[in-house]
Amino acid sequence: MNIQTTYHGNITVNDEELLSFIKGIPGFHDEEQFALLPLEGNEWFQVLQSTSTPHLAFITTNPFLFFPDYDFELDGASLDQLGNPTTEDIQVLSILTVKDPFKESTANLQAPIIINTVKKSGKQVILTDTNYRTQHQILAQPAGKKG
């Protein structure tokens, strides 16, 4: 599939690599298909790119790289929607708000992106009853602590 992207221009993505978000992403309910692309020159960050809207792309990261104590439980409904993946088949991403200077960039730990890597399905889960917020500085520690 050929897609126009925000950061990579026009590229070809294998259909097997596309991620299906059955109900879209909160705020973007009509966006149901994304590609997870590398961010050139940086292995810690990826681009979650809509396949239908070229200007809709999220910079993401594995939150455990910056917040090793990050921990949450997925509810049964979310697991069902994702096809009941095993722990080994789950990839967790956090959407970043990239700021200038970069050291002030933040990660959304309250609403992680959960991907079933086998079924290629994804969902943004909004965590409740947690101290995690939508903005945690990625270069500051610790997350989930009030103060």
From TrEMBL:
GO BP terms: bacterial-type flagellum assembly; regulation of translation
Cross-referenced SUPFAM superfamilies: BH3618-like (SSF141457)
Pfam families in UniProt: FliW (PF02623)
Segment forming the signal sequence: none
Chain segments annotated as transmembrane: none
Cellular component annotations (GO), alphabetically ordered: cytoplasm
InterPro entries named in the record: Flagellar_assembly_factor_FliW, Flagellar_assmbl_FliW_dom_sf
Places the protein is found: Cytoplasm
Keywords: Bacterial flagellum biogenesis, Cell projection, Chaperone, Cilium, Cytoplasm, Flagellum, Translation regulation
Free-text function comment from the UniProt entry: Acts as an anti-CsrA protein, binds CsrA and prevents it from repressing translation of its target genes, one of which is flagellin. Binds to flagellin and participates in the assembly of the flagellum.
PANTHER family hit by this protein: FLAGELLAR ASSEMBLY FACTOR FLIW
UniProt family annotation: Belongs to the FliW family.
Subunit structure: Interacts with translational regulator CsrA and flagellin(s).
Protein name: Flagellar assembly factor FliW
